[in-house]
Amino acid sequence: MDLNKLKDQLQTEVDTAFLYDSIAAIQSDDALTRVLRSLSEIEKGHAKHMHDKVLTVEPAYKMPPPSSRAKFQLKLGKIFGYTSIISSLSNIEKQFAVNSIKNKIKNGEKPTGFEHNHLNIIEAVNNNAALNVSGGLLSKFESRHKSVGGNALRASVLGSNDGLVSNMSLVMGVAGAAVSNNTILLTGIAGLLAGAISMALGEWLSVQSSRELNQRQIDLETEELEASPEEEKKELVLLYQAKGMNAIEAQKLADKAFENPQTAIDAIITEELGIDKNELGGSAWEAATASFVLFAIGAIIPLYPFMFLDGKNAILLSVGSSVIGLFGIGAAITLLTGKSILFSGFRQVGFGLGAAAITYGIGSLIGVSLAG
């Protein structure tokens, strides 16, 4: 028995229960609160089971409190939106389901099909889908906490990281060649603008393509609804059942949706395609602007010291500022990966400094070669 692994699993269960409880505490809808509280109680049961296993090896081991990472994640949820936490919980439940199936197969047991139940429930909340509580209720939950969410958090972290690492490497490479501050600044600004524009263009194309694809899917579904409404209703009933409803409830909800063509197509777009008709993938210009700004914020960190210092002092401040920025990005990545803040922070610092050291060394060799 791997005691450290068992303790890690116990901490994950404790953190998961804590986050479910914390999100449930801010709800005004009783039905949604009950769903989240029930998930929390189940996770607490899992935690107790894990704790009992640990006690067989280490009798004095106490049930751990929620980790600092979970508390930090909850605080950031107030800024980035609680959907970022729901997305994280969805990833945890997915891993739990995979591990459960692997263990059953390893022990010669047959999976029951219920291993993904928690994942289905939390993803239904995350995707504003139909549960044994009304779709309208979950829609209100989603709109209350929409804000930035998990995908935007991921984009902001990765965009800032790209800007910081790429421009730090570029600046260090030029600095290694022992050129003037003006040349370093000009190169760094050019790298910042080129990278930010490239990121913005790429994001614009990605979002705009997504919007066009979503609109095409909506048009196709509208044509199918007009051609064979009964077949579309049957598909919607099956979809509701796949999300946890019994046959009677699914049929009633589908009948309600098909009372008129507009509500019918709205239900199909939401449930079958998983598309928000009002968003269609978001604004391409907003995404492009955000990518430009986030990349530029990261890229300015290693560059600004050369605006008022020169030589080694500028290089040292640039490296120091970049280390702080890289550690912060690594810490933010823990919201997506579940790793410890110190591990992710120092790993990011290591990768960034490694890239900078390589380009600085190459720059030095080129500078010496040109000087000779």
UniProtKB/TrEMBL annotation:
Listed GO molecular functions?
A: manganese ion transmembrane transporter activity
The regions listed as transmembrane in this protein's record are 184-207, 287-308, 314-337, 349-371
Q: Which GO terms describe its biological process?
A: intracellular manganese ion homeostasis
Q: Where in the cell is it found?
A: Endomembrane system
Could you state one GO cellular component term attached to this entry?
Answer: endomembrane system
Task: Note the topology in the membrane.
Answer: Multi-pass membrane protein
Q: Which UniProt keywords apply?
A: Membrane, Transmembrane, Transmembrane helix
**What organism does the record attribute this protein to?**
Flavobacterium omnivorum
Q: Does the keyword Manganese apply?
A: no
User: Is Transmembrane helix tagged as a keyword?
Assistant: yes
Question: Under which name does UniProt file this protein?
Answer: Predicted Fe2+/Mn2+ transporter, VIT1/CCC1 family
